Every structure is written in structure tokens, then in C-alpha cells.
């Protein structure tokens, strides 16, 4: 059994496991839930995930004058942010980012597993020219074996992004995926709403949520 205790809080930031979040997960994990409800309630959780991811970025001091003429010693959000969903499932999280960051820049990465080698292959990327100077929220709802996530992170590193400037935002994960990413990229931080028990012999998460992209976009059988 894989132990992830060393990664919790340091590398992995799990949303508070309160009754509200469990109720939302209960809806979206139900195999009989309608697609409309699946989309609606996963988008609620996605917004929580994006907010948590933004909270890990650096803030700078910024004072403002209040309506009564007093000074409030506040903070300014990190600038130069870009969201990078991994096509296709990661695009389900794009609306959550746009809802809380007006005018957010969006890049794209497409990685698929080669049928012969079983290894992840980069098929497409479209990223801002200045991405090396930006903070990146890498978006993909499922972190299972970690192969796709690691390949996408390597694409960003190859473009000059600092490892510590990458926050991987994922809806659901397992210890195997956490170990795969954190052991290879120890300065990348992960934000998730659920850590599952394990992967089964077919690399499906247990208890799981099914194929997130198919359920979200309505292409499940």
C-alpha cells in the first residue's frame, strides 16, 4: 500500500472533507445521476478547486482606503496567470477558472496514450509565448496513474515554466497518482477534492466516478 502522508499539506492540498462536499460527491458519483446534474454539481466543486488553487499563488501587499477614510492593509492577487486544461476532460474545468478570473488566459495541451507502447504522447500544445514567466493552473479532473499529468508537466517545464509555479488542479485522485507526480516533481502542488482508495487491475479508481470526460460531455455509453 502506498503511503502519501509525507505529501499531504506539503504537496497535496485536499479540500475540507465536510458534509457539503460529501453531499456533492454523492450526487456526481451516482451512476444514475442525469448528465445535467453531473455537470451542474461538478462545476460547483470545480469552482472550489480553482479558488483553492488560486490561494496557493503568491500575494503582494496592497493598501486601500475604505469608504470611511481608513486604510486597509490588504493583498493583491498574483498576476500573470494562465490556465492550461489537458484536452479533453480538462476543458470541463475551464469554466470554473473563467468564473473567478476575468479574462484568464487559457493554453491547451493534448496528450494521449500510444496504443502500442502504452506511453503518453504529446499530440498538440498551444501555450502563451510568455508562459515561462507565468503561474500555471494545470487542469485535469482525474489523476490516476500519473502518466498524463507527468507528461503535461514536462511540456510546461520544457517551455521554461518553473516547477514551483505549477499548481495541478484535479477533481479526483488516488495514492498511486499522487506518488507518481510528487516523487518526480516535488515542487509541483496538487489541489483535489477527493483521494480514492486505490486503482483496480484495470487502472480504474475505487470507489471512483467513472470516465469524467465522457460523463461531463455526454459521450458515455
UniProtKB/TrEMBL annotation:
It comes from the Bacteria. InterPro entries: PRTase-like, PRTase_dom. Keywords: Glycosyltransferase, Transferase. SUPFAM superfamilies: PRTase-like (SSF53271). Coiled coil: none annotated. CDD domains: PRTases_typeI. Residues 16-219 form the Phosphoribosyltransferase domain. The keyword Metal-binding does not apply. GO terms for molecular function: glycosyltransferase activity. This is Uracil phosphoribosyltransferase. It comes from Lentzea pudingi. The gene is upp.
Amino acid at each position: 500500500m502506498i503511503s502519501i502522508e509525507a505529501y499531504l499539506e506539503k504537496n497535496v492540498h485536499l479540500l475540507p472533507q465536510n458534509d457539503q462536499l460529501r453531499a456533492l460527491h454523492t450526487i456526481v458519483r451516482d451512476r444514475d445521476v442525469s448528465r445535467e446534474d453531473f455537470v451542474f454539481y461538478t462545476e460547483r466543486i470545480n469552482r472550489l478547486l480553482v479558488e483553492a488553487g488560486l490561494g496557493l499563488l503568491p500575494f503582494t501587499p496592497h493598501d486601500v482606503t475604505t469608504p470611511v477614510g481608513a486604510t486597509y492593509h490588504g493583498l493583491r492577487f498574483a498576476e500573470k496567470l494562465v490556465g492550461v486544461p489537458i484536452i479533453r476532460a480538462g476543458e470541463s474545468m475551464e469554466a470554473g477558472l473563467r468564473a473567478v478570473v476575468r479574462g484568464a488566459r487559457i493554453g491547451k495541451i493534448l496528450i494521449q496514450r500510444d496504443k502500442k507502447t502504452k506511453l503518453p504522447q504529446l499530440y498538440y500544445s498551444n501555450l502563451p509565448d510568455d508562459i515561462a514567466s507565468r503561474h500555471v493552473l494545470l487542469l485535469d479532473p482525474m489523476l490516476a496513474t500519473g502518466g498524463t499529468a507527468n507528461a503535461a508537466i514536462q511540456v510546461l517545464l520544457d517551455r521554461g515554466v518553473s516547477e514551483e509555479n505549477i499548481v495541478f488542479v484535479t477533481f479526483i485522485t488516488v495514492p498511486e497518482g499522487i506518488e507518481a507526480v510528487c516523487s518526480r516533481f516535488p515542487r509541483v502542488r496538487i489541489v483535489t477534492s477527493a483521494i480514492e482508495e486505490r486503482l483496480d487491475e484495470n487502472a480504474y479508481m475505487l470507489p471512483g466516478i467513472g470516465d469524467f470526460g465522457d460523463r461531463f460531455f455526454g459521450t458515455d455509453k
